[in-house]
Structures
1.
Amino acid sequence: MTQRITIDPITRLEGHGKIEIFLDEKGDVANTYFQIPELRGFERFCVGRPVEEMPLLTNRICGVCPEAHHMAAAKAADMVYHVDPPRTAKMLRELLYSAFYVTDHATHFYALAGPDFVMGPNAPVAERNILGVIHKVGLEIGGKVINARKAGHTVIEMIGGRKVHPCTSIPGGLTKGITKEQRDEILKLGQWAIEFAQFSLKLFNDIVLGNKEYVDLILGDIYTHRTYYMGMVDENNRINFYDGKVRVVRPDGKEFVKYAPQDYTQHIAEHVEPWTYLKFPYLKDVGWKGFTDGVDSGVYCATPLSRLNAADGMATSIAQEEYDKFYKTLGGKPVHQRLATHWARLIELLYAAERWVELASDPEITSDNFHTKPTEIPTEGVGIVEAPRGTLTHHYTTDERGLLTKVNLIVGTTNNYAPISMSINKAARSLIKKGTVVTEGMLNMVEMAFRAYDPCFGCATHSLPGKMPLQVTIRDAQGEPVEVLKQFC
Amino acid sequence: MTKTLVIGLGNPILGDDGVGWKVAETVKERLDAESPSRVEVDCLSLGGLSLMERLLGYERAIIVDSMATGQIPVGSVRTFPLASLPDPMAGHSGSAHDTSLIIALKTAESIGADIPKRVDVVAVEAQNVYDFSEELSPPVAAAVAEAVQVVFDLLQGAPHDLT
């Protein structure tokens, strides 16, 4: 009897998406599909708009990482106008972006990843959330998470003009700078953020690395794929979220290519499947060989783990110590175990906090030279930043008036669509076997395969009361449901 | 009157999903015409922890949103306490990148944060929440006035209908 298992929509995943697991007549997994059934069309309806509006328009793509779109759009618009912002403007943008990273990575760890490890993958679903985490580990953690978010939002508002959707980046820099008083407050908040990041890494060390069961889970084959890895690096091949070149390393860790943002089309192509709206980017020079890993497959990954793998190290001192410990503990570079992404994310959290303080300490950060007036005729530009969920590319072409004639976006999660699909497939095949009773905990472990990527498919619409966060339907060969599992979280 | 926040939730460019904003904007116009009050109005596209953070410091909140049950006529207006929402991750109360509003509020409460003592939801049954449009469908547009009145009734102490 052929069975079909549907996870729709996926718990704790932004936007619409569902997992279909098809079983063969024996009861083993025949295939899996991770579908994105919505088309948002941002690239189309931005055509005709002035390019300087893009930092405002594209940060509305989603409420999760508007800061990433704001920055990529601003950088692309700089290039369209052939203008190089002053050093202070670049530092302020990166400072805002570092504070954003602290809020975003902290939220992911405590609200999404944490419940799986602190409460356990098989814990009752009603307890597998941030509330369960703080009840188990300590109330003070809840306060720290809320303070970390508040600190980040304060900086974002000071530099970006608004807490959620920043509005101050324009071609050539920013519309405003910061005062010395604001700098002092930003510095103080950043120093607290470093302590918070170190606290979070200690928590991970104690709860996850101190538990053999979890270490075995991380190092096991279920969540392992050997792919290429992508991440932005500075001139010393150290991680940078805001600026630099995109570096790709092979599955053996050796550099495959390093390219400037404007050259991305020479290296990245997109594969189309008929069962989903989202395309699958791959490395052009390797080629699309299907949903498979290894050196001969053009599938690459762009995540916190990928960024660590693609770089030679971190650009700040304490994060570098954690980077060294990471690879020493996990057996050297590159690390292929996808669940290690959660650890990598915390190392990035620490780097972001250190970078925040480093930038705020620069004497030029309060300079009033925060904008260079564009004087050239606008043409074409590419802006790339590292979004928390992966390399984010904005590519604009305009007419001589600066009105957009073409827009192409490769968002963070899109890079990871193929690896996420592969990880779901592997986890499902490993966990669901002939004669297995499919439990909620088992399905959560399938979800963990993609939660490590922190996927985001854009928040389109969710109306009350919405669908169940997780629904599993097992159907017989005639398509009739024989069992339905639902969960509330 | 207690310090109250009225929030219109939704995406204003996704058709009926923008009804929360339309209702909140109308509530604000009426409030502005009245004497100074302790009621603030905001329009947001947030969920989870971010939405909870916006509610801190208020004694009471009213959230206006669209709903799509498919079980009542389009344009129907319902009101209920947030805590009675059957699915905590439903609608804009949930954000997949953090947690649900209900869990976020419980989290804040557990650490002693100043959360509202009462959170009510006013929901309008929607027809089209997927296609890009800045316009509401006619039956939903026609329900805006009723939803506005429900918000004012709640502000003046009306009980929930719980239907």
2.
Amino acid sequence: MSDMMDDMEEGGEGVVKKFMFVNRKAPHGTIYALEGLEVALISAAFDQDVSMVFVDDGVYELIKGVNTKGIEVKDFSKTYRALEGYDIEKLYVEKASMDARGLTQDDLIVDVIALDSAEMANLMAEQDVVISY
Amino acid sequence: MPMVEVAGKSFEVDEEGYLTNLNDWNQDIAEYLAKEEKVEMTENHWDVVNFLREYYDEYQIAPAVRVLTKAVAKKLGPEKGNNKYLYELFPYGPAKQACKIAGLPKPTGCI
């Protein structure tokens, strides 16, 4: 209850909650990555405190130089670069997921912060809402 | 899907009149869509429409109004990047109406 009151004061006109969207899946083949991205964009339009996390195959969502012509679906990887304009600036990847796939920050289309799993766990514990895809 | 005919060619639109295929877009179609929206296109309207097409090309989405306003301010100056100016040009909502004229899908997070 007291948490709720704090949120009200902080937000001024509404409740601002810490939302974290956890992206775990490769960008194509399922609808999760694209839908997750759209939900994050919509939540930012409601002035929420949004962060996005990319773990497991989810790190592939941020990869540079994607060409989806062969599978005839939309390449939405460029849309991650629009997140900044929506004030979604907290983007995290998990180090182990990057290492396991031989990826470095240079392979990614946006700037991210790399966290180890303990740091990731702490960050998740701070959130009001964690939604995982 | 409904079809419309502009300058002797037919184009597919969705049930709300948005152009189905982004690549079909040209100036004639923009003029037609503007007429449907009862918007008379001036140079200022074109600036916003062209800006939206560039934004879409770069990010693959149509921006929400708040984001559009901010981005227009950055590109075309603060006297154009504000709600009053954009709503004067596109009275039924700059994101919704200008996106339609620009041949883009409805903006994500359009509420």
